[in-house]
Every structure is written in structure tokens, then in C-alpha cells.
Amino acid sequence: MSETTADVEKRCRDFRRIFHDLKAEVGKVIVGHETIVEDVLICLFCGGHVLLEGVPGLGKTLLVRTLSSALSLSFRRIQFTPDLMPADIIGTNVVMEDRETGARHFQFQPGPIFGQIILADEINRATPKTQSAMLEAMQEHSVTSGGKLYKLPEPFMVLATQNPIEQEGTYPLPEAQLDRFFFKLLVPYSNREELAEILQRTTTGIQPVAEAVMDGPQIIAAQELVRRVVVAPHVQDYAIRLVLATHPGGQFATEQVGRYVRYGASPRGVQAVVLAGKVRALLDERYHLSYDDVAAAYLPAMRHRILLNFEGQAEGIDNDDILRDVLAQTPRTLDEAAAAQ
């Protein structure tokens, strides 16, 4: 039985309600950081992974724990350390002995990656060999061990944290892994009012707890609904041109990109921009993507997908500044693009 217009409208209203309910539950525990919370939820409904970057003590780990409490999903935490091995993440085959016959056989013991909400804490502390164990899980939602493929439970989401200041004993994430993160979110310091509220909640014996308001099937249904949002050709072309503008030497590259960028974004970048824009459209009670939706999703979806050259690194150029310049220089409509040329 096909859905009617009224059915679709009801699903969209339910989506907006559950989104705001989730945000409210997380807000019971997390003070401030409303934009960060909203972007994490957008990633959840797009089926993507999140990289949270900020100095210690800003609530990155607490945010992930709180989100898992607001969802009826299995939660696993992996503390990344220099001596962590790939088998400590994905699991390993162990020898088992049958008590009756004495026969021995290998049995796979799943690792902590077999969860639905995965907290990869301080992910840049593990060696590249161990970091690479996350690649298949994040892209294909599966792991391979002993020549066998094991599917991960759905929905599956990785939320990784890293400290941008401390460099000793850390291993920068390779570009291949960075590209698998849907958003990279920069967690800022709390302001005066937020710090007062944090003290009120944490030093007076009050312990707010987030309650579960959504389960796995509901999340998967919401992810399917998001993908049904309509994208007009001219808006899609705008998103494409924004991504192509990060390619040095390309047709749409800006002056700053040509001077400071070594490699631009991959197709995953435009996928992330469009999908995140679709969630924003639904939250704004629209069923089509707009230019503003694309622009709002651009920085978090792209800041980790461009690689600076030596000159850009030497001058301390910030990726966000380059992307803001791309947004400013890239015309939205085809008429504006023709006039610019």
C-alpha cells in the first residue's frame, strides 16, 4: 500500500517531534553546546559518524554517553591507547574445546566494535595500524576476521573524540579515516552562564539523567525518510560546485584554494552536505533542499576533507577560513555563476 501525502506529512511531523525530544533529553545533562548537539543528531539521522575535537573537560565523552542514554541502543566505549591492537577492537578467534568429545575448534569472540553507539575516546592516541581497524567498520558496517565477514548491528554510529592540543604520544588520523567521518565538530569553551549551570548541576548532588525516547527501528525509518527529501537540480549543482571549489587548479577553485590547498574534498563531501541539508529542511518544515541548508552544512561536513599544502601549514591557515571564502566566492544560482565568469 503506497503512502498518501497525509502519511508523509505525519511522518515528517513525527520526525521533527522526535528530533526535538532527543535534543531536549540530551540538554538535561549537557549544558550549552546546542549547535554541537544538533549537528550530532543530524549525523545520527544521516547514518554518519562524528569526530568531536576539543580540549579536555568540555564534555565530549559525556555528550556521547548521554546520547546513548536517550536512545535504546547498545553502547560501547573504546579507550584508544598506544598499545591498543586491532583485535582489541574487532575481536579475535579463540580456541574452544568441546567438553564431551575433546575436539577443538576456533570460535570468534566479538570485540567492542559490535555495538550500535561506539565511543572511540581519544582516537588519535592509537597507532595507525589500530586506527585502520575502524575503516571497514565505519564504511561497510562490517568487520573481517579469520577470512569471515561479520555484520555489525544497525543502526551503527561511531563518535570519536580527540584533543587538538596534546601532540606527544598521538598519531594524526590518516586522510582515509578522516574522510569517513560525516562531520568534524569543534567543541568550544563554555561561557559564564553555562559554567554557572554546570556547577549547579555537578556540585549540589543533582544528577539529571536522560531517558530513552527512540529505538533502532525508529532511527532507521527516520534515516529512510531523510533520503526522500527532494533536491532541485540547481540546488544540487550549487552543492557540487562548492565541493569542486576545494580542488586546486579546478574550474571553480578560489584564489585561496589554489594558493593554500594541496588536496580537495572527495565525493563523500558533497554526499554529507546534501544529506545534512535534507535534515535541516525537514526541521524547517520543508520537503525540499534550499541553498541555505547547503551552506549551513558546509563547514562541519568539509573542514576535515581538505589538506593544506606546505605554504598553508607554514602560515597557519585555518581550514574554516578557506571554506568561508569558498562560500562567499561561489555564486548560488547559474545566472550568478555565468555573470561571475
Key phrases:
globular; two-stranded parallel ribbon; Helicase, Ruva Protein, domain 3; alpha/beta; 341 residues; 5-stranded parallel sheet; 2 domains; single chain; 16 helices
Structural account:
By secondary structure, the chain is α/β, with parallel strands linked by helices. The protein has two domains: 1-85 and 111-228, Rossmann fold (3-Layer(aba) Sandwich); 229-341, Helicase, Ruva Protein, domain 3 (Orthogonal Bundle). The protein is 46% helix and 16% strand. The chain contains 16 helices and 13 strands. The protein has helices at residues 5-27, 34-46, 60-69, 87-90, 128-131, 133-140, 175-178, 192-202, 216-226, 233-244, 255-260, 267-283, 291-302, 310-314, 319-329, 334-340, and strands spanning 50-53, 71-72, 75-79, 91-97, 104-110, 117-121, 142-145, 148-151, 157-162, 183-186, 214-215, 261-263, 307-308. The strands form five sheets. The chain has a five-stranded parallel beta sheet with strand order 3-6-9-1-10. Strands 2-11 form a two-stranded parallel sheet. A hairpin with a 2-residue loop joins β7 and β8 (148-151). α1 (5-27) crosses α2 (34-46), α10 (233-244) packs parallel to α13 and α12 packs across α13. The chain is globular.
